[in-house]
Design a protein that fits this description.
The protein is 47% helix and 1% strand. It is mostly helical and 318 residues long. A two-stranded antiparallel ribbon has the order 1-2.
Length: 318
């Protein structure tokens, strides 16, 4: 009897401890609903707010930059619900091979959770909080809103946060005007912006930078996000970094001149000009009938009937 009581007390204690741990975990995890309001992020203290002059709506960000970031950071972004299990599996295998964490498998939603609400700690508790917040973000926000907020908080260089500040710093233009070369460069910076941005200070791309940017541009060409002409111009101008006064707009094709006619062949237009136009047949005009004079009446006046004259003074006999 005492053994059963001891086991029951043990199970009760474990359940109580786990319940207390869950309550503590939820109580100490940041309130995710504040992301719909203005707030300062935990990781870099960025003011994430649409009133921030450096905040830019998704529709005002170059489509090629949006596509290239999604492809480079989270290729299955629009198909998963916060976690890319295939990437997590690959990352786990690589970490086991090297006996340390060498490759992250974080999705864009997970990165947003970390940037806004958490720190860089690599503890189990921090990873559990990240997963918990990721589930909430996916339930609260659309994919477009998740991507918009992510692009406004990511670090793209020392003290440079968000795509608007980065586009201005590196290329002196707005996010809407980024071309494929500039988009590939900013996406290349994301994994390690403080180190990779040194290429801008030196005005020279490293072999790895060229390799990575070429990979990203190959992906955009394969996916049909850019034309073959844009792709060829971008690869040709890659070494002109940082691409001041470089245009990736393909030149219009020259007008094709008409081939001269073969000897002895008269152009069709000339034939038409030389061919006499047949005279139109005369239009028959019906003779107009002249008005006829009205015939004069030949009827003679009818003589009035008169009674026989009666001699004067005589009496008429009745």
């Amino acid at each position: 009897m005492s053994n059963n009581t001891g086991k029951l007390n043990l199970i009760t204690g474990i359940i109580t401890a786990l319940t207390a741990l869950v309550v503590w975990f939820i109580a100490t995890t940041p309130n995710v609903t504040v992301i719909n309001r203005c707030l300062h992020t935990s990781l870099y203290h960025v003011w994430l707010c649409d009133r921030n002059p450096d905040y830019v709506p998704l529709r005002q960000i170059s489509p090629i930059f949006r596509a290239i970031v999604v492809e480079s950071e989270d290729g299955n972004f629009y198909r998963h619900h916060g976690f890319d299990w295939s990437q997590i599996h690959d990352s786990f295998d690589k970490d086991l091979e090297s006996h340390r964490i060498v490759r992250g498998g974080s999705t864009i939603t997970q990165q947003l959770a970390k940037n806004v609400f958490l720190t860089k700690d690599r503890t189990i508790i921090r990873k559990l909080r990240e997963a918990y917040i990721t589930v909430q973000l996916e339930a609260m926000l659309t994919k477009s809103k998740i991507l918009e907020k992510y692009l406004n908080v990511i670090e793209l260089g020392p003290g440079i946060y968000g795509v608007k500040a980065a586009a201005r710093h590196y290329f002196n233009k707005s996010p809407a005007d980024l071309n494929v070369l500039e988009a590939a460069y900013l996406a290349y910076l994301i994994p390690n912006p403080r180190v990779y941005s040194r290429t801008f200070e030196r005005k020279t791309l490293t072999p790895f930078a060229k390799f990575r940017m070429t990979e990203l541009m190959d992906d955009m060409d394969r996916m049909g996000k850019i034309s073959d002409a844009e792709y060829a111009l971008a690869k040709n101008d890659l070494d002109l970094f940082p691409w001041q006064n470089v245009s990736l707009t393909p030149a219009p094709a020259p007008a094709t001149a008409a081939a001269p006619p073969a000897p002895g062949v008269v152009p069709q237009a000339a034939q038409a000009a030389q061919t006499p136009t047949a005279a139109a047949p005369p239009i028959a005009v019906a003779p107009q009938s002249m008005p006829q004079p009205m015939p004069q009446s030949t009827t003679l006046p009818t003589p009035q009937a008169t009674s026989p004259s009666t001699p004067s003074g005589a009496k008429s006999v009745r």
